Amino acid sequence: MPSNTANALTFEALVSLTRALETANSPADFLAAADNITGQTENILPLPFETGEPETLAPGAKRQMSRDSGNAPLVYEFLGSLDRSNASDRRLWTYLAFVTYRDYMEKRWPLAEAKNWKGRVRDRWLLLNVSRGTLIRHGIARLWWVSSLTYDPQCEYSLSKTSGDPFAYTKEVFRNEDRLNALFDREAGTIPGLVRAVLEHAAQGDAYSKDKYLGAIMMEARLVYGYRDLSALAAEEFQELVTQAVPLSVPA
User: Fold this and answer.
1) Alpha carbon 178 to chain centroid distance?
2) pTM score, whole prediction
3) What is the 3-state secondary structure (H, E, C) of 127-164?
4) 241-250, long-range: CB < 8 A, 24+ apart
5) Mean predicted lDDT score pLDDT of the chain
6) Alpha-helical segments (H) within 80-131
């Protein structure tokens, strides 16, 4: 597979984009200014790792529930496994949104039709502050981060073993857009074993896959187990933990 040096924007370019957003009168004005900023070589920063060739992401139909189930694996395969420093680099994710995956972003997170288009830019396009919440909202970062927490390269676990797909858990997350927030908007969402156990439970479908129910399980699981280190549990223990949390979160 051909490799390419990964790129990011400079901090100065991030500042320029922020200022352009503040002064723009319309999405068209802002995107034109963004093109001018990202088109200047001095605003591009080569990173010390290589990527593959990016594949085109499909934005899907407007109300399609699983719009990004096929896109997340493509972003992960393009970037590969990143260390925490690069995976949290706001300059990288902003570059990918405005340059590498620009066509996808304009169709998946369009600005012209948004009531608060500047708010959408801050949530989905720009990454100005790094936190768990901002990473799972950003249009591109969320695709990689969910994949990184659910990827099962050896197909060791139930859903991926059954399907033969190492991204089976990733696709289960994106089966419903609201599910991402239910699973990852809490600290417990950074524990792959717990996320897998909840997704296996959600795979039963119907009420068991509703985002409010899954969110309740994540919260109750944390309460049931108290302050012990969940990351050290075995797969069977995670399943038992979810089972304990379920009676407290029975779907309506």
Assistant:
1) 12
2) 0.88
3) CCCCCHHHHHHCCCHHHHHHHHHHCCCCCCCHHHHHHC
4) 241/194, 241/197, 242/194, 242/197, 242/198, 242/201, 242/217, 245/217, 245/220, 245/221, 246/201, 246/217, 248/216, 248/220, 248/224, 249/213, 249/216, 249/217, 249/220
5) 87
6) 84-87, 90-95, 102-108, 117-120
